């Protein structure tokens, strides 16, 4: 539900903008508020899951998600919708922060890449279904109905998970409250600063930018001296771990800039309805659903280096090809290019997630899951800011409030989309290069990781054989 809810709103953002009579810089907060609270609390809840139990955190998040979805559908104003979306993001953080740790618990090391490939399919399925469901519901029943789809799905999910998941033992939680608060403040101020730059309020942006920098310095200082940090910065001393996190962040920046920017191009320039827009946006996730398990299996067998590099290269080619889109392009032209982008993401994400999870011991699974979720959601948050800023370099906020654009205005928005995809192409090249650097010694570390599991299996087998031999000796003596 979390990825569905992250993508289901994108198709309706142009409609919500017109409905409430607000511009792009305001309506993007409907998406940004959700992502900020999701990101701001994901590390907090991942740590809570390590002590209170991942299963309990997940179930509590499900209840909160269903409740806030109902509130979003009843929002009387754009301000209340933004607030309720923020609360919904907090509930989503409870679910997503522990999801990968639950996957790690459920599969042995030699099947981890395959399992994470299936996990990537679940994420891609949500992203794929989101635009289609959002387009259908919003087109026939209005934008408020897109939040109601979470109610039956969430209730069934809660019943299923409550029955299946076994609750782990609780232990005392040692909180890092200052670190959690500083992380959230830093993130909010950074996004707000970018938003002020977008609307040309440079004096305010200077003040909030300085405050964001101060809060970042205080956060780093707090985390380095804390005995129980919300984010263990020492983990980033591992070059491979750091390299893969950066490249994964770049990948989500590229993907989510497209999910944010393309609906405006499709509806305002190509004049497509919400239903058709939703179908076009399914191109990338559908390909990811198909290819992600295969790339995970390839990573299990041959290592992560080659598929991760190819993923970055394919993504770059796909994004560069989008510079050929014009005011006269068709839905098919966009669909093909988004499908190619989905292929690149599928080749990249599963091997990268596998490499990240294999870097840390099993007791750090919750921390790793939280960091990966943070990397993903940080990319989503800044993708909205960067895409909005680049689009506004080409077209004025006043023109963006129109339901459809023609002539020079349509060409300006198309130019804004070109700026976004060129920036994404540069990031894709960067993530391919970083992946190669991060994987320089990855084969050896993965081999070591697998050897530990094999050694444990061999020791268990020896004990079993020894026990059987002792029994056989006793039986022979009796005879």
UniProtKB/TrEMBL annotation:
Annotated transmembrane regions: 20-45, 57-76, 82-103, 115-140, 146-165, 177-194, 200-221, 242-266, 278-299, 306-322, 334-356, 377-395, 415-439
A molecular function (GO) term: transmembrane transporter activity
Top-level taxon: Archaea
Topology versus the membrane: Multi-pass membrane protein
Assigned keywords, A-Z: Cell membrane, Membrane, Transmembrane, Transmembrane helix, Transport
A GO CC term attached to the entry: plasma membrane
Domain Major facilitator superfamily (MFS) profile: 1-442
Xref: Gene3D superfamilies: MFS general substrate transporter like domains, Multidrug resistance protein D
Location within or outside the cell: Cell membrane
NCBIfam families: efflux_EmrB (TIGR00711)
Cited PANTHER family: BLR6921 PROTEIN, MAJOR FACILITATOR SUPERFAMILY MULTIDRUG TRANSPORTER MFSC
Designated name of the protein: Major facilitator superfamily protein
Organism for this UniProt entry: Methanobacterium formicicum (strain DSM 3637 / PP1)
Classification of source organism: Archaea, Methanobacteriati, Methanobacteriota, Methanomada group, Methanobacteria
């Amino acid at each position: 539900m979390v990825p569905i809810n992250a993508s289901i709103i994108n198709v309706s953002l142009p409609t919500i903008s017109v409905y409430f009579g607000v511009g792009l810089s305001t309506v993007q907060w409907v998406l940004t508020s959700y992502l900020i609270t999701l990101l701001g609390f994901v590390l907090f809840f991942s740590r809570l899951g390590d002590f209170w139990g991942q299963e309990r955190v997940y179930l509590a998040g499900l209840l909160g998600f269903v409740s806030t979805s109902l509130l979003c559908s009843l929002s009387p104003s754009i301000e209340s919708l933004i607030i309720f979306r923020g609360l919904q993001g907090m509930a989503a953080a409870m679910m997503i922060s522990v999801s990968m740790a639950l996957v790690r618990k459920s599969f042995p090391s030699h099947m981890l890449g395959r399992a994470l490939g299936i996990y990537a399919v679940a994420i891609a399925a949500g992203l794929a279904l989101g635009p289609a469901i959002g387009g259908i519901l919003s087109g026939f029943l209005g934008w408020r109905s897109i939040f109601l789809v979470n109610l039956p799905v969430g209730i069934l999910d809660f019943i299923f998970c409550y029955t299946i998941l076994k609750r782990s033992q609780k232990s005392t939680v040692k909180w890092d409250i200052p670190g959690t608060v500083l992380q959230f403040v830093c993130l909010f101020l950074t996004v707000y600063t970018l938003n002020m730059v977008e609307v040309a309020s440079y004096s305010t942006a200077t003040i909030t930018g300085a405050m964001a920098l101060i809060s970042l310095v205080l956060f780093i200082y707090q985390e380095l001296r804390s005995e129980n940090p919300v984010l263990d910065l020492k983990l980033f001393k591992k070059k491979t771990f750091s390299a893969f996190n950066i490249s994964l962040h770049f990948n989500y920046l590229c993907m989510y800039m497209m999910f944010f920017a393309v609906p405006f191009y499709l509806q305002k320039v190509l004049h497509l309805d919400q239903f058709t827009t939703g179908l076009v946006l399914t191109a990338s996730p559908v390909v990811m659903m198909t290819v992600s398990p295969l790339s995970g299996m390839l990573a299990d067998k041959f290592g992560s280096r080659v598929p991760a590099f190819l993923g970055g290269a394919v993504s770059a080619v796909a994004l560069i090809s989008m510079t050929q889109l014009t005011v006269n392009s068709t839905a098919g032209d966009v669909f093909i290019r988004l499908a190619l982008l989905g292929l690149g993401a599928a080749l990249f994400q599963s091997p990268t997630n596998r490499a990240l999870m294999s870097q840390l011991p099993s007791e750090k699974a919750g921390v790793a899951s939280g960091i990966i979720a943070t990397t993903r959601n940080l990319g989503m948050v800044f993708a909205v800011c960067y895409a909005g800023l680049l689009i506004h370099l080409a077209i004025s906020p006043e023109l963006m409030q129109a339901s459809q654009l023609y002539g020079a205005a349509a060409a300006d928005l198309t130019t804004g989309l070109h700026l976004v995809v060129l920036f994404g192409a540069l990031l894709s090249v960067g993530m391919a290069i970083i992946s190669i650097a991060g994987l320089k010694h990855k084969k050896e570390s993965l081999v070591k990781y697998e050897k530990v599991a094999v050694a444990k299996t061999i020791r268990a087998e020896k004990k079993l054989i020894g026990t059987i031999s002792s029994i056989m000796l006793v039986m022979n003596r009796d005879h």
